[in-house]
Design brief:
The chain is mainly beta. The protein is built from eight helices and 54 strands.
Amino acid sequence: MKYLLLFTVLSFVAPAAMGQTLTIIDEETGNPVVGVAATSRDPVARARSDVHGQLDLSRFRGSKAITFRRLGYQAVERSYASFGAEPTLNMRETLFHTDEVVVSATRWRQTKREVPERTVTIYPRDMYLENPQTAADLLTLSGEVYVQKSQMGGGSPMLRGFATNRVLITVDGVRMNTAIFRSGNLQNVISLDPNAIERTEVLFGPGSVMYGSDAIGGVMSFTTREARYADNGSMLLAGHAMLRGSSANAEKTGHVDVNLGWHNLALLTSVSYADYGDLRMGSDGPDEYLRTRYVEQGPAGDMLVANDDPELQVPTGYGQLNFMQKVHIRPSTDWDLSYGLQYSRSTDYARYDRLQRPKGDGLRSAEWYYGPQRWTMHSLHVLHNAATAAYDHLRITLAGQFFEESRHDRDFGKVTLYNRTEQVDAWSANVDAELALTTRQRLSYGVEAIYNEVHSSGTDLDISTGETIPGASRYPDGSTWSSLGAYAHYRNTLSDALTLQAGLRYSAVALDATFDNAFYDFPFSALRMRNNALNGSLGAVFAVSTSTLLSTQVSTGFRAPNVDDAAKVFDSSPGSVVIPNPDLGPEYATSVEASIDQQVDGILRLQLTGYYTWLRDALVRRNSTLNEQDSIMYDGTLSQVQSVQNAAEAWVEGIQASVEVHFGKGLRLLSHFNWQEGEEQLDDGSTAPLRHAAPWFGTTTLSYRLRSLELALSIQYNGEVAYEDLGTHVVSGTEYLYATDGEGRPYSPSWTIINLKAQYRLTDLVTLHAGVENIADLRYRPYSSGISAPGRNFIGSVTLDF
């Protein structure tokens, strides 16, 4: 009897001692909702749902009002007594995420309704359905970023007519741009693992107040996954695994991440590997894009070989490994420390556009490839939340990045393989603070220090004998680029309807280089630059009503010359060579934009932004001389001497528009449209189309969600760029990359493709994904690209969440 009594007592006591777990799920999909904040005043308690959508409800025992909030969901208030023995809570997603949080605009969290600049956010949910292969492909999911590719291992984003070293990339708040980011198309963004990214924000327009040099066209801010603590009293073990394959390039990708969390310690490990074969283009389109021949090296030397399958782009395949480790420590409720290690390494990959370059009846290059692209980043973040006289929130960020890239090229029939290797050590320190001056006024301010050291070397290999001799380096070895900056940003909510914002930043930039004239007889032996800039922004957001929002922003930006601009020696295009220019100065931009955000009856949302940007003292390549000669021999070719000069002005204007319609019962239509037009001034005073001003483009997606099933039918479209709109600086020497119009002139045709994606949550753990892209198998090439896009592409993947 006594044992029965003891068992009866334990049956009531044990559940209370163990706690009561609440599971929160999405009302439509049935998926767990992560990061729901639960709070109550009596008793005073708070908790947050974990990766399984669960939180400890027992701490709210007796509460008559528990409030559950999560960005993108309608807030819910329930009493503790309303939950049963196995409590669950359904949360309904809001139709329009007007309350979503934006970080990139001020480096601190604020709602999108308070931000006058246009921003777009890409969430993991979008990535899971669309299955992007690389971080460059991930950016296209925004519908407002245009991506150019010169090879499959690439992806150069264009924002409002600017690209490469005029747009800024940040990873967990650390700038990725280095002293050798070039004006030619870049592939650095593919070092990021899309499977490890928590969210991506794109801030359009100059971001120099917050980020200093380079942020003229905009900022792409990537936030990687964070290690999560166990807020429910026990150890947290969670993970995500994925296997994916696609047909167009025989992709084989695997990913796994595991999170271990305790109350004050959390660990996250993430690993991905992707292997891609040669990319197949579509079957219906311009014949000029076909790969009819390529070069093979046989016993007798280089051979021009006919391609038995001209739709297969040979060679384009490569592989990539990504690794990430996060460690979070919470010594108290006020402090949070986190360390992150990110590592990326690719295999060799071909510069496909250069391998197509004709010479006479053959091809100019027998080999042209990039060596392994390596990127390592160590970052330490210290966050302090406390109401002090100087700040409410303080963040210190220390980072060290190590980049390595190399180029290898050899002309057809020649024995010399030119090898050029670059390494950049990039160190940075940021101190950012936020302070509430009053209930309606906030001040954020900070300082930043950056130091880059460039190591560059060159060798020339005789492939017939194996002999290696020193060669000219791409940059002066040991060059340094450094920057110091301080900023302040003020926000005043004058009323519930009107918010004003103003920002100011001072930046000082230094560049030092010493030249080795063993290969080139420059009339100078060293380069020393000291530049500075004062940038500002002024913006306003006016809520006409709960459904109408108006905003406007005026801002300035700048870009100080880096080592690539001022000090490189490089074959920029067929028949020309760029030499250093010690007399360069910064380029400056002024931009104005205005937006309207209109909701209608809670089911329709319209967003429209118009902008205009003026770039002065633009850094552009122009003809020059070296020792009074306008041409020199470079890599065995007589080449026109050029240098980067402050020799132009440029103008870009455009509109960005989006429409979102919710038809009810899980059916939604989302459409983005972008139009821009840009011009730059030439030496003779005339103007030419701006190189990185993309044609009009957009996406329209019809999606449907019902419990475990989600479907999306999308259309991507791109306007034509006629011959007269290409510009001589784009066409000269690169005509072979374009289709030809009715008069035999190069041009970039318009194109439209249709994609279908689906995902189905098979169990609580397993989700299946499938899709087909470019259903009509169109052969097309995005503007300014040197490689054709995938043809009809079947995609399949399976994910496991535990």
